[in-house]
Specification:
The structure holds 2 protein chains of 2 kinds.
Chain A lengths: L1 H28 L4 H7 L7 H10 L6 H13 L13 H36 L4 H15 L2 H16 L14 H34 L3 H8 L4 H31 L1 H6 L5 H11 L2 H29 L7
Chain B lengths: L1 H17 L12 E6 L14 H7 L7 E3 L7 E3 L2 E6 L5 E6 L13 H12 L16 E8 L2 E6 L6 H5 L9 H6 L3 H4 L7 E7 L3 E6 L13 E6 L3 H10 L4 E2 L5 H11 L3 E16 L9 H9 L3 H8 L5 E3 L14 H4 L9 H14 L6 E7 L5 H13 L4 E7 L1 H10 L4 E7 L5 H4 L19 H12 L3 H18 L2 E14 L2 E2 L17 E2 L2
Helix pairs in contact in B: 9-12, 16-17
Classes of the chains: A mainly alpha, B alpha+beta.
Chain lengths: 317, 526
């Protein structure tokens, strides 16, 4: 298992290099650059010399190859460079927003898991009864309703009912738990609902499948209580695919909540991502893509290791 | 007795009505919370162009002069206590206030003003000075004593005093600039009414009252907090909930109506014409837009008068004007406008002429792509309106909406046929607004890629004309020629709508969202 883990970690390197090459090329395919946007987009009257000076300052006058080499050399020592828009270190820009995005992702995951697994299991156990129908309607609605739209409805509801909206600025939970939760519970609910719908459907399918297995029939035949049959024998096997879904959704939440963050005015990674892509802030976009790619790879690895921990039949070499 | 009582009552009532309402004395205290729809990339006034910079940063700085907002466009002193201009218009002498301190306690002197303007006029290597060209007439800056600054010009400049009131001409510390010319990009050290407290990237900006502010008793506010809210719906929600009390750029009519319906008399609406408009620009290097007949035809097709009336209900455009904002003293009157091609109220006749011109030019079945920004307000509705107007003369237009970076690149690189550009300035000033129309080799914001020496000559003459009547005549001549050639022509001028909670006092709307943002006079009635 250790050898397998080490191999997977080493495999991250070529994967990330591939991602780096792809994002570098894709960014430079689009016309326009950040200098034009920064100095001209609001009607600035700037000479071509001033534009050239600014481009040189940002290293944009170098060949693509040199730009790539500079960037990769920085990556190798975990130096992600300076934001071309703000001039601040990329690490600072990301770290000031990562806490919020992580917290929303964790809260949404907890909510989703707490809702999805019990509901999915109930739907499977009471298949084709009104319980199953209610859960399925809940799940389909969750898949059909975009989380940002649900977010907009939540905000409207709060505004019209209580004349109140969540706080506009983020305070870490250890500084002001109530203020923090007052801001983040709503996006966590909006996102968690869709997340729970996906997981609930997966849980329902896998539990139904597992309940038809021979070992379940054997356990019942031996007189094991139904509750124990489900909890000890069925769930452990049924949850394996659900863990994969939950893991991948969690990784997506880190940078994927672009519109939801706009709706709730959250200063998170998703909003930063959109802004930096729009601006053509190459260093920021590259760093964000690498971060999210690394996240996906690590989450995938953790999910695979968890699989092995839960299922003794699975052994990696 | 009854008669006397009635008479007394009547007299007392009459006295109450006749006496003017006593102005409320400003109250000290409170934090003004407002929304800003974008965030400044750095802190340097001299290299900035956006309102997103002005709104959070301006309260930390002072300028030599500033606009007297309630009496716009009147100018008053900020750091300058008084000033004189010689008869020949070549020497501007400013007497500075003696009690001004930077927020680190060091006194502000003439050397700081000189260093700041030298940075604007001759930026050191690596420093971007956006408005360098506006000060190209300055040949020398002298400081005979610590509180006197003298600017020498090479030629009279009708806009010079307006330039010194620019909100972008922040006065920096000479000592800091000497140590590091790029100091202001990442540091805030001004003499304004508020000290810098905090900038949480992507989230908010905080300023606190400066105890050393030169104007005794001001600012009234304890501080301000600007929230960066990029989503328009989120901004309106924040206003409705009272989480922010105002937003200083401007709202769309639908947003105004939503807020007034929800909040009633808790808010007040301030409206003003705006020194901003959208202009159609043709790439004159691409056929058939090298032909003035085609360009003029497309201007003639537009019913600006009816369009302004209709669009004002859904977009933040309202006013019909020429090259200068309607209502400004140097702008054409409605009667003068009606004589210009494209501004006649007989749109049927104009459209007939347009069709005739297209036929003469051999492009009766003209088709082209119209490049626009993908910003809903007001670019999209104006773009749709224009395309519909052109359809009335048989022209088929494809609407290409690009996000800002791609749009800016398309216009700059000439990768467009016709585009919707904008012209926004901090003040009504022909020397600013007319830059859009002069030759490409003189104007970095002429995307039409043409040179017209007549326009250049008229521009130069009006910039030097210190006699208002002569300047007016020259501008009319400029306007007539520019709109006849129609390389670039105005559409409809914007209209500014501010909704603010009634607690806010002391802030006056002006035709520019770049002005009156130092917040020195603002107070909260709570």
């Amino acid at each position: 298992m250790l050898r397998y883990t080490a191999k997977r970690i080493l495999l991250m390197v070529p994967t990330l290099i591939g991602v780096a090459i792809l994002v570098f090329i894709l960014l430079r395919l689009a016309p326009g650059d950040i200098v034009e946007l920064k100095l001209l987009a609001e009607g600035g009257r700037v000479s071509p010399e001033a534009l050239a000076t600014e481009r040189a300052r940002l290293g944009l006058d170098k060949s693509y190859w040199l730009q790539f080499v500079d960037w990769m050399a920085g990556l190798a020592v975990f130096d992600f460079g300076i934001s071309m828009w703000t001039g601040r270190p990329v690490i600072d820009e990301i770290s000031s927003r990562l806490g919020l995005s992580l917290q929303v992702a964790i809260m949404a995951t907890i909510l989703a898991t707490a809702i999805a697994i019990p509901l999915g299991t109930l739907a499977a156990l009471y298949k084709d009864t009104w319980v199953d129908h209610v859960v399925r309607v809940f799940a389909i609605a969750g898949l059909a309703v975009p989380s940002f739209w649900l977010g907009m409805l939540l905000i409207m509801g709060l505004l019209l009912t209580f004349n109140w909206i969540p706080p506009l600025t983020y305070t870490p939970i250890y500084k002001d738990p109530l203020g923090n939760l007052a801001q983040l519970i709503w996006p966590a609910l909006a996102v968690g609902y869709r997340y729970s719908a996906v997981a609930a459907r997966m849980t329902r399918s896998t539990v139904i499948e597992v309940l038809q297995e021979d070992y379940i029939r054997t356990a019942r035949a031996k007189g094991v209580y139904e509750r124990l049959v489900v909890a000890r024998h069925a769930m452990r096997n049924a949850l394996l695919p659900v863990i994969t879904v939950i893991g991948l959704e969690f990784a997506f939440l880190i940078g994927g909540l672009v519109v939801t963050e706009q709706v709730f005015n959250l200063n998170g990674i998703g909003k930063l991502f959109v802004q930096t892509v729009t601006r053509g802030d190459y260093t920021m976009v590259q760093a964000l893509v690498m971060l999210i790619a690394a996240f996906f790879i690590v989450i995938n690895l953790l999910v695979d290791l968890l699989y092995a921990a839960l299922d003794p039949r699975i052994r990696y070499r | 007795m009854i008669r006397m009582t009635s008479l007394s009552f009547t007299l007392a009532a009459a006295a109450m009505v006749a006496a003017p309402a006593a102005a409320q004395a400003p109250k000290k205290g409170g934090e003004l919370k407002f929304a800003v729809s974008a965030e400044p990339p750095n802190y340097d006034c001299h290299g900035a162009t956006s309102f997103a910079f002005i709104h959070p940063v301006r309260p930390h700085y002072s300028t030599l002069l500033k606009f007297d907002a309630p009496k716009y466009p009147k100018i008053k002193g900020d750091l300058a206590e008084s000033w004189t201009v010689t008869e020949d218009g070549l020497t501007y002498t400013f007497k500075l206030r003696s009690n001004v301190k930077f927020h680190d306690g060091t006194p502000m002197t003439a050397a700081d003003v000189k260093a700041s303007y030298e940075r604007i006029v001759n930026p050191p290597a690596g420093v971007v000075s956006i408005r360098k060209a506006a000060y190209s007439d300055i040949t020398a800056i002298e400081t005979p004593d610590p509180h006197t600054v003298i600017f020498k010009l090479k030629a009279p400049n009708a806009s010079m005093l307006t330039n010194f009131a620019s909100p972008w001409d922040c006065i920096y510390s000479a000592a800091k600039l000497k140590a590091d010319p790029k100091f202001p990009e990442k540091n805030i050290l001004g003499t304004g009414p508020f000290k810098f407290v905090e900038h949480a990237a992507g989230s908010h900006w905080v300023g606190a009252r400066s105890a050393d502010y030169y104007e005794a008793g001001k600012p009234y506010l304890d501080g301000f907090r600007a929230f960066f809210i990029t989503n328009a719906a989120a901004r309106v929600n924040a206003l409705q909930a009272g989480e922010v009390l105002t937003e200083f750029r401007g709202l769309a009519p639908a947003e105004r109506d939503k807020l007034t319906k929800a909040l009633g008399d808790k808010v007040e609406v301030l409206e003003s014409p705006w020194v901003c408009n959208l202009v159609v620009t043709f790439n004159t290097e691409k056929k058939p837009f090298d032909d003035a007949r085609v360009r003029r035809a497309l201007s003639l097709a537009i019913d600006r008068w009816k369009g302004a009336e209709a669009l004002s209900k859904i977009a933040l455009v309202r006013h019909v004007g020429g090259v200068l904002r309607p209502g400004y003293e140097l702008a054409a009157s409605d009667a003068e406008l009606a004589k210009l091609p494209g501004w006649s109220k007989d749109v049927a006749k104009s459209r007939e002429e347009a069709k005739k011109l297209l036929k003469e030019a051999g492009v009766s079945d003209l088709k082209f792509k119209f490049t626009n920004r993908n910003i809903p307000m007001p670019y999209t509705p104006v773009g749709v309106f224009l395309i519909n107007e052109w359809r009335q003369i048989g022209v088929a237009v494809e609407h290409e909406q690009l996000e800002t970076r791609l749009y800016t690149n398309a216009l700059r690189s000439g990768n467009f046929e016709a585009g919707l550009d904008f012209n926004c300035d901090h003040v009504d000033d022909p020397s600013l607004q007319l830059i859009k129309f002069i030759s490409a080799d003189k104007s970095s914001i002429n995307f039409g890629r043409y040179n017209d020496r007549k326009l250049d000559e008229l521009y130069e003459k009006q910039a030097r004309a210190t006699d208002p009547k002569e300047r007016y005549r020259l501008i009319r001549e400029f306007e007539a020629h520019a709109l006849q050639e129609a390389y670039t022509f105005p559409t409809i001028w914007w209209h500014r709508i501010i909704v603010q909670w009634k607690q806010i006092k002391g802030w006056d709307i002006t035709p520019s969202h770049y002005l009156n943002q130092d917040l020195a006079d603002v107070w909260l009635n709570q």
